[in-house]
Amino acid sequence: MAAQEAVDTVRDREIGVEQEHLDQVYRRLEEKIHEAEFLMNDAAQKGHVGTPGALAERDAQVFRAGVHLNRLNNEFEDFLFGRIDLLDGKDGVKGPDGAYTSVEPADDAIRPDGTADIGETLHIGRIGVLDADYSPLVIDWRAPAAAPFYRSTPVEPGRVVRRRVIRSKGRRVLGVEDDLMRPELRASLGGAELPVIGDGALMAALGQARGHSMRDIVSSIQAEQDLVIRAPAASVTYVEGGPGTGKTAVALHRAAYLLYQDRRRYSGGILIVSPTPLLVSYTEGVLPSLGEEGQVAIRALGDLAEDAAGGVADTYDEPAVSRIKGSSRMLAVLRKAARGALDHPDAPKLLRVVAFGRRLELEADELRRIRHNVLGGTAPVNLLRPRARRLLLDALYAKSGAVGRHSDPELAAELRSSFDEDVSTEDSFLGFLDAWWPELAPRGVLDAMGDEKRLGRWARRVLNPGEVRRIARSLRRPGLSVHDVALLDELHTLLGAPARPKRKREYDPLDQLTGLEELMPVREETQRERAERLAAERTEYAHVIVDEAQDLTPMQWRMVGRRGRHATWTIVGDPAQSSWSDPDEAAAARDEALGSRPRRRFELTVNYRNPAEIAELAAKVLALAMPGKESPRAVRSTGVEPRFVAVGKDGGLAGTVRSEAERLLASVEGTVGVVVAMDRRAEAARWLDGLGDRVVALGSLEAKGLEYDATLVVSPAEIADESPAGLRVLYVALTRSTQALTVLSGARDLPDEAGVPDLLRD
Ligand SMILES: Nc1ncnc2c1ncn2[C@@H]1O[C@H](COP(=O)(O)OP(=O)(O)OP(=O)(O)O)[C@@H](O)[C@H]1O
């Protein structure tokens, strides 16, 4: 009892120490708010008066003040979250990412008797704050000096003796958790022994209940993850890692890091490509929590080409169809379709005009020849319309009898131009041109491909008749599928976009203040609106991050590639989770999209999501899906084994799913995901009706990237049989849970007496 009280007293005292520091930080920030408000008012009043040098200096000040003001107004949780206590020492070697790779204590920092003094204490937070005398009160987590907070380990501690994670809300410090990096030392701080509280922040973070949105991991980034986050953004950074190794988290933190490190360079925008709208909404809170929003667009694959697609796609084709639509064979088909669509059934077969008092006609054969001629090159079809117009006029002029009437070239040219003007303003000519060479829209061409006969013509020697039938049928269905979007985007390029007038923006004197408009909440346009506007206006980005990259089809790689032709890239993925039937073809397409840019590879090896009990079960499916592939190492174990159930006689599938979901809801505090085969999505949602919003039903392909406190996987065999990549999709489904997993065998599974279906046995 007395011992516990002593611990509590030490803990309270340490919380008090951090509280004092946080108070000091807030006092300083308040001073800065006043400065920021003053500067902003001043700037707004003066408009663009001032010398360039003074302007630049003032801009920089306003920018920094604006950052702080905005952050403060957002009242971050855990504004200040870390602290490291360091031995005196050298700064070590600066790595290519600017972080110190080896920060070693000075030779005399540790005395022969194993005692040492803490020489320096640094606090780490979401933004950096300097005191009035320019000493750092808080170091931005992305600054090189903060790297030891993430990279130091008991094996390679460097100068770090104690690493502390501080939990705070608004202005109040709620708790501290320490990790000792040099447990062998007797270290003292200000003459007193260095206290150590708790047993580590990582485990505390991993055990927390999950909600419907992802949290940032800024206070517990691990060393191997930190290396990826801070990797210099040259060319392509490629990150591979199994389920739960933090690939998505790392990708998001990397976006924040890159913006911090070189905001100007990334003013061209960062695009994060995510496989599903569900994963977009799950992850979109992370960047704002890190203080970044305006320059980053997170887009689902079905939502990436809104302009070309004329909407957002959220339906999925059956695997056999998406396999064809995704393959690079479609490129040849689309090229033909983009040109062939001009030849629609209602296209006029005859052109008749009156010029120079004569009736002139071009007949079907002549028209066909002219079209063939115009389409000779590879230029986008819509951009060839002026050429088509000119060749029509040439042909008509040739028939007019006017050729050769004047030997004087000047007079001949005059005659020709008056002929052109006469004809090309005639209603019959204009009407003909519109019908014969209409401005084609991607959606119109895709609709035309729904006609099996026409598609058959365009796909000759590329798709077999069965494939043509399947694709045409799928295109006749209302709505867009996710795989249609990449086709539409390709068509957009093949057809050429008609020039659009640029939107005019209103003049605003504040615009000249670097970055201010993006950071200040006082403007009418919110950050989110600005992000959306920028995304809508932008077609290319400075950095492209692809999450779940193993799933992009060749056609999707082409679509994403067009958005980052001059970009640097971060690509994260796991081939073992690929739902694409031919990973080699997708990898070849990826390589084509990335061109010859050099790649740097990283691997993440630790599973932070699944307890060992669940990871072990999933590993059995991995062994079937990808023999020889290693599973990531799970860091924790809960002692709770997965539960196996077979469909009960009374309730049938619906009743059993419902009762097992209820059981899981009672066993965890947070979310429950019920994963079913794709074509059971709608009925599964009905089975769960009325159980509240902690539980969701999702199709196997939608589970990608998400996580739940508990999952119920319904019929492994159904999921595995759904597509050629079914085993890998099942592997994804089994690796979504942070605490509990129930596997329910349906009619197709063959459970043993313990209820374990055949696919999950040794
Ligand atoms: N360093 C960390 N500290 C705390 N939590 C972490 C850390 N790294 C990862 N996590 C947590 O582990 C879970 C898995 O992370 P994430 O979703 O990024 O993994 P992933 O590799 O993208 O997984 P998948 O391939 O299955 O989609 C998340 O809840 C994430 O917050």
From TrEMBL:
* SUPFAM superfamilies membership: P-loop containing nucleoside triphosphate hydrolases
Read off the Pfam families from this record: UvrD-helicase
Q: Which domain of life is it from?
A: Bacteria
| Keyword field contains tRNA-binding | no
Q: Which Gene3D superfamilies match?
A: P-loop containing nucleotide triphosphate hydrolases (3.40.50.300)
Domain UvrD-like helicase ATP-binding span(s) in chain numbering: 220-611
Q: What is this protein called?
A: HelD family protein
Gene source species: Streptomyces omiyaensis
